[in-house]
Amino acid sequence: MGVLSPAGFANPSFARNQFRFGASYTLPVDLFGVIAANRESAKQDLAAAELTLRQETLLKLHETLTAYVQLQALETQGFAIGMQQQHIAAMVDRVTAQVNTGELGTTDLKLAQSELAHVEAERVRLDGEREQALAVLEEASGRRQLPSKAAISVPAWHVGDAKEALPVRIAQAGEQASEAQARAERRALWPSLSAGADYYQYQGGGHDQDTWSVGARVSLPLDIGAFRKTSGADALAAAARDTATATQRKARSQLAALRASYDAAVANVRALGTELDYRQQVVAVQEELTKVGAQTVEDSLRHERDRVEAEARLAQARAQALEAWSAAQVLSGLAPETYISELEAL
User: Fold this and answer.
1) At a CB cut-off of 8 Å and minimum separation 6, what does 173 contact?
2) Strand partners, 202
3) Could you give the CA distance from residue 21 to residue 5 in angstroms, rounded to a whole number?
4) What is the pTM of this model?
5) Does residue 2 surpass a pLDDT of 60?
6) What value does the mean pLDDT take over residues 142-165?
7) pLDDT tens by residue, 63-97
8) Is 240 exposed, middle or buried (0-12, 13-18, 19+ CB in 10 A)?
């Protein structure tokens, strides 16, 4: 190879070695928005992934709170059962003494003893449930600890519209990503344009030569599979739209059910709090009447049982209210930091 010219044909200068140095660059031109559509699809996929991460965090917090309040309710019931066991044991001793003196019959003693056995069995059952709840709490939070004796107050209800629910936002992000992908597939059926430029330098034979070039390339898609792929992307986009609509309806139904459960639980907490005060006063009065023989052992045991049941129902109602509130926060997509700070402020 060498530098050839009409004047150099008689004695052309050839080089044994020739060197070529250069660089080239090609830039796609987004003439029909294919690149922009792919970029939008990736952006929505990232948004959906971030929302899913928040959902997983909130679900773990909800699981932890649920296990905590259930364990706290069991602790409350266990304390009430313990108090009941002490009262009935004292009653058994008192009735035994009265049976020995002939003041009461053996029927009352057997009734008190059977009630004590029933309470002891209930205590064993609560201990088993307590260990199960403690294991769930340890799995959810990574720590094995008993809850505090102070009951958690029920937070006020503040949940936005179902349109802003976290599953709805995740579904909408998926819908937008699918639509952007379908748009990219449709626009990929149009001709694509790319611009390129290169520079090279030739050295050899005692001559140096620079070459420049600037050009454009137009590509025509002729693959029949691209049309089928576009049809599939359109079908996926339509399915994503239907999913987003169905998710919004489901979120609205779930929020309504959680609000009803929360309101019912809060109403039960208020009613059972009043009832528990009444039951405690009745038990105190009935215990004194039983000591002087003005009340039967059966009636005294029944009032004691009613008091314990009221305390258990109060603990469960408080746990139900907290669980409904927590589930609503997960559904609404409350920031995990806000979720924790609201509980700490109670």
Assistant:
1) 44, 45, 47, 48, 51
2) 20, 209
3) 23
4) 0.73
5) no
6) 81
7) 999 988 988 888 888 888 888 888 888 888 888 88
8) buried
17 contacts 201 by C-beta, under 8 angstroms: no
Q: What is the 3-state secondary structure (H, E, C) of the chain?
A: CEECCHHHCCCCEECCCCEEEEEEEEEEECCCCHHHHHHHHHHHHHHHHHHHHHHHHHHHHHHHHHHHHHHHHHHHHHHHHHHHHHHHHHHHHHHHHHHHHCCCCHHHHHHHHHHHHHHHHHHHHHHHHHHHHHHHHHHHHCCCCCCCCCCCCCCCCCCCCHHHCHHHHHHHHHHHHHHHHHHHHHHCCCCEEEEEEEEEEEEECCEEEEEEEEEEEEECCCCHHHHHHHHHHHHHHHHHHHHHHHHHHHHHHHHHHHHHHHHHHHHHHHHHHHHHHHHHHHHHHHHHHHHCCCCCHHHHHHHHHHHHHHHHHHHHHHHHHHHHHHHHHHHHCCCHHHHHHHHHCC
- The one-letter code for the residue type at 182 is A
Interacting residues of 189 by C-beta distance below 8 A, sequence separation 6+: 221, 226, 227, 230
> Where does the pLDDT of residue 170 fall: very low under 50, low under 70, confident under 90, or very high at 90 and above?
very high
* Residue corresponding to tokens 């997960």: 330
User: Residue 225 is which amino acid?
Assistant: G
Give the mean model confidence (pLDDT) for residues 141-145: 78
Q: Is the dihedral of CA 242, 243, 245, 250 positive or negative?
A: positive
Report the Cα 340 to chain-centroid distance in Å: 14
The residue whose two tokens read 């009447």 is: 289
Q: Name all domains of the chain by residue range, CATH numbers in brackets.
A: 33-190+250-344 (1.20.1600.10)
Token pair recorded at residue 255 = 């929020």
Sheet arrangement for strand 207-219: 19-29, 192-204, 207-219
Categorize the per-residue pLDDT at 1 as very low, low, confident or very high, splitting at 50, 70 and 90: very low
How large is the average pLDDT for residues 180-199?
Answer: 85
